[in-house]
Write a structure and sequence with these properties.
Blueprint lengths: L3 E5 L3 H12 L3 E6 L2 H8 L4 E4 L5 H6 L7 E4 L5 H13 L5 E4 L3 H10 L3 E3 L1 H14 L3 E6 L4 E7 L9 H4 L1 H5 L2 E7 L2 E4 L12 E7 H12 L4
Helix pairs in contact: 4-5
The structure holds adenosine-5'-triphosphate (ATP).
The site of adenosine-5'-triphosphate has 21 residues, from helix 1 and strand 2.
Length: 222
């Protein structure tokens, strides 16, 4: 059976989630108080309804607890976002993802039981900052305040060298999780794997260690 999603709030963020889920063939209920927004998504989502999700009875009549995953993408109105989330938690929705506007909002949402809180502007800002500091960092995923996963592009410094020769684990305390070469992905590569310029290397480690490794082995002018 197809997974059932509901997206509350059809601004740029919620709208893009709704569109992407629909394109992936999921069943999506799109909800907004704004009729124009709902009309815009009527042909994209499986169903689109005008509703105020801060009203408990409205949520009940939509049968919201039967959805596998509900995304709350109400932006500016923090009070509505918190109230909606609280009611989704009370009604026992299994997976609730909420967009936070700021750190305080994020704290409250986590406290009241949101399963996942996202902060798209901040997270994208961190990613872009990493990308522009070093052009060899292709992508970046923060695991905690101290640990991350990064994608690095192999340049001349590591060309034709093996992982054991580069001694990444001992010298930098980082682990190479995978190497992407063209369309192939080599997961958990062996120590004698030879790197080639242009390979994408996916590394997990502490930020300070990744940073050291990046400077020594991947930071090239062009
Ligand atoms: P984005 O940057 O993603 O566009 P935003 O911060 O501009 O987000 P808003 O426009 O504030 O987000 O809110 C997103 C949508 O949520 C709006 O279309 C708004 O009508 C809708 N919305 C706000 N409150 C409610 C509510 N109580 N129930 C349902 N929808 C709501």
């Amino acid at each position: 059976m197809k997974k059932q999603f509901a997206v509350i709030g059809l601004g740029r963020f919620g709208g893009s989630i709704c569109k992407s889920l629909s394109e992936q063939g999921m069943e999506v209920l799109a909800i907004d108080t704004n009729e124009d927004k709902v009309n815009e998504f009527a042909s994209i989502a499986t169903h689109a309804v005008v509703a105020d999700t801060t009203e408990e009875n409205t949520l009940k009549s939509l049968g919201i607890r039967n959805f596998d995953h509900v995304v709350v993408a109400i932006g500016d109105n923090i009070q509505s976002s918190i109230l909606t989330t609280l009611m989704l938690v009370e009604q026992g929705v299994n997976h609730i993802t909420v967009k936070a506007q700021n750190d305080y909002h994020e704290k409250v949402l986590s406290k009241i039981g949101a399963h996942k809180v996202v902060h798209p502007e901040r997270d994208m800002g961190v990613r872009i900052a990493h990308n522009i500091v070093s052009k060899n960092v292709l992508d970046y995923l923060e695991l905690s305040d101290e640990y991350s996963i990064v994608e690095l592009e192999a340049g001349q410094t590591v060309n034709h060298r093996t992982l054991i020769d580069l001694d990444i684990r001992a010298k930098y305390g980082c682990n190479v999780m995978a190497i992407k070469r063209d369309e192939e992905i080599n997961v958990s590569p062996s120590a004698d794997e030879v790197l080639r310029q242009g390979d994408i290397i996916i590394v997990i480690g502490a930020d300070k260690d990744i940073s050291r490794m990046e400077k020594d082995l991947f930071d090239e002018d062009d």
